[in-house]
Amino acid sequence: MPRQMSDRKLITYYNPESPIAETYRTLRTNIQFSSIDNPLRTLIVTSPNSGDGKTTTVANLAVTYAQEGKRVLIVDTDLRKPSLHQLLSLSNLTGLTNVLMNETEWQQAVQETSVSGLFLLSCGPTPPNPSEILNSRKMQQLIDELKEQYDIILFDTPPALIISDSLIIASKCDGVILVVSGGVTKRQHAEKVCASLAHVNARMLGVVLNNKNKRERKKEYAVYFRK
């Protein structure tokens, strides 16, 4: 039985009627409408720097997909500083790195969360060569196999301005969501990340503005999606 998840961060699960939870559902809907004819199956959520809120965003977005009846998998590819297992109150003893190192099958590493339809493939032990194993044939093979079992797969990646791992995963996925922190993330940092993603032919779906005050949050988010 999964342990209690973080009620402070998983607002879409513990307070689904809140304005912030509705914002995450709006994000989900806009992602879906961005590619109606060819539904997006694999998405990465990244940010320029640590602390921008990417992990909280990917977890809440995943919950909204599961609440819609989808079979959803979150994969923690932040191999240097994994945290999804803590947010979801699950184990990190076995995970993605064990699968990529051929130490276990992914079916044994995936964990069920407290949210119906939502599963986690945690990071696992930190490897000595994160970039190399993420860029391996095994990683691409794993993604292909997971797509056969899940409706949508969300990848939590390291900060894209600091570590190139995000670019590796972005090149293998259908789209990218960039999370920036209002009043903290520098514009030139966000622009640099967008340029790097374009260089690997990643599809930028949009930018989530995080950490705005309550009075401004909904307005800022709506303005973004009218562009």
TrEMBL record:
Keywords: ATP-binding, Kinase, Nucleotide-binding, Transferase, Tyrosine-protein kinase. Its EC number is 2.7.10.2. GO terms for molecular function: ATP binding; identical protein binding; non-membrane spanning protein tyrosine kinase activity. It is an enzyme of class 2 (transferase). Gene3D superfamilies: P-loop containing nucleotide triphosphate hydrolases. It catalyses: L-tyrosyl-[protein] + ATP = O-phospho-L-tyrosyl-[protein] + ADP + H(+). One of its GO terms (cellular component) is plasma membrane. Residues 49-173 form the AAA domain. InterPro entries: AAA_dom, Bact_polysacc_biosynth/exp, P-loop_NTPase, Wzc-like_C. Signal peptide: none annotated. Belongs to the CpsD/CapB family. PANTHER family: FERRIC ENTEROBACTIN TRANSPORT PROTEIN FEPE, TYROSINE-PROTEIN KINASE. This is non-specific protein-tyrosine kinase. It comes from Paenibacillus protaetiae.
